[in-house]
Design goal:
- The chain has 47 residues and is mostly helical.
- It has one helix and no strands.
Length: 47
């Protein structure tokens, strides 16, 4: 019983870790895309 609970805790920790890494990657990709869009947008407007 205790071993199973410990295993679930481990899976939960791994899931949390993967989720936070995934979120960080997505956030950085979004920021890069936003910067690119802003750059193109301002380049077009300045013409």
């Amino acid at each position: 019983m205790y071993g199973n609970n410990n295993n679930l805790f481990g899976i939960g920790m791994i899931a949390m870790l993967l989720t936070s890494i995934y979120t960080a990657i997505l956030a950085s990709l979004l920021m890069k895309t936003k910067e690119r869009v802003d750059y193109i947008y301002h380049k077009e407007r300045s013409k």
